[in-house]
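Figure caption, in words: inputs first, then the predicted bound structure.
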Amino acid sequence: MRIDVITIFPGYLAPLREALLGRAISAGLVDLAVHDLRTWTRDVHQAVDDAPYGGGPGMVMRPQVWGEALDAVLALDERPARIVVPTPAGRPFTQATAQAWSGDERLLFTCGRYEGIDQRVVDDARRRDLTVDEVSIGDYVLVGGEVAVLVMVEAVVRLLPGVLGNPASAEQDSFSDGLLEGPAFTRPEVWRGLAVPDVLRSGNHAKIARWRRDRALERTAERRPDLLAALPEDALDDADRAF
Ligand SMILES: N#Cc1ccccc1Cn1ccc2ccc(-c3cc(N)[nH]n3)cc21
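Bound structure (JEW present):
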């Protein structure tokens, strides 16, 4: 997978070259290129923003700079790219989104700042039949798109074959079966007077699986009843319903 990121703060994306993601890049599983948007400015001040039409607070990012940047970065590779625009006004980015995008050949992230990017940049890309996804990582407002890109790239890249040491980790993710993950424990057996649940030390794999499923159902019902309500009809078996 090729990943391009366009931003006025390239340094914000440095964490993508650390740890697991850094190893995925070194292993050739991911090609990452970060581009400074100001490369495509033409004025001495390298202006990337201007006042909003219709008035209002803040500034809006200029379409000309973004249009030239997108055209240039898209042209760097013939593979089709999904253009991702982080925005508080986007469709929710979920585990299902990450799963879907993990099958893409190329992702191109555009990091806005100020009050966002002139809408015509997205409109122009779409009318050229480019795939453009405007996505939100949560119902809160960040200062720019860079942090959202860090979140989305990590969520997607960890799903690529060969990235996680144990692929089962991704298969047993929270949300992979529509439920939250239950509690996890490791040594010591007792810590500050708190013991690991006996069933987890029983060696009875059927009982352990049932216990873990019950804890996941319990936690989901308590913290995210919306996820429980959204489960497909056949997602819960009789034992689940009995819980
Ligand atoms: N746009 C916008 C905007 C609108 C109003 C106030 C502040 C901003 C700042 N901003 C500029 C770029 C940008 C990108 C993504 C987010 C973002 C995503 C999530 N899920 N929250 N915030 C915010 C971003």
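The pocket of JEW is lined by residues 86-88, 112-113, 115-116, 136-138, 140-145, 148 (CB under 6 Å).
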